[in-house]
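target protein:
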Amino acid sequence: MNAVIPTRPPRRTQAERSEVMRARLATAAYESVAEGGLKALRVRAVAECAGVSQGALLHHFCDKNALILAAIEQALTLARDDSAAWLDTAPSSREAVLRAMLSEFRGFFFSDRFWVAMGITIEASKDTDLFQIVRSKVSSLRTPIYAAWTEQLTNHGWLPNDAARDVRSAAAMISGAAIRRFWADTDAITDEIEEEWIAERLARVQG
């Protein structure tokens, strides 16, 4: 009986290896900000987190601004993947889709993904050119999520404009609650507001 000779997996191309390294460095940049804030986003610190030399890092990201963009893209890509799981659940009722949307928004706005993105955006606002790039990056990664929820609501009987308005108001409500928790203890009022918001939307659509 002839022995089976295992075949070697195909070697990665240079482009594939480069993409893997960029992803590794982007993850390290995001984790550095998530753990230590923007002050932790230093070339040396990110290189150490990724386990590479500073030279290797600078080969892929030429300066700190490039690292900033990598960190925010990583944060929002992780958030997009989380959102996709919610959007794939296909809620069966109007109330279910509203509750799923609020839960998905809560998962984002109460997470490190949001705070990394927010911290970077605030810092970038001091640099006009960088700020425009960051805004564009955020828009490209978050707008499709809101559009998908708008479509979900439309599929459940909302008029398109009403759906878009309800998605925006939901995002504003949940993000506000996320920010408020730094200044005040959580109480029952937030839950009451959300329940009233749901009831009002259902009454309007069903009416």
User: Anything to note?
Assistant: The first helix runs from residue 14 to 36. Residues 113 and 188 are 26 Å apart (CA to CA). The domain at 14-206 is CATH 1.10.357.10 (Tetracycline Repressor; domain 2).
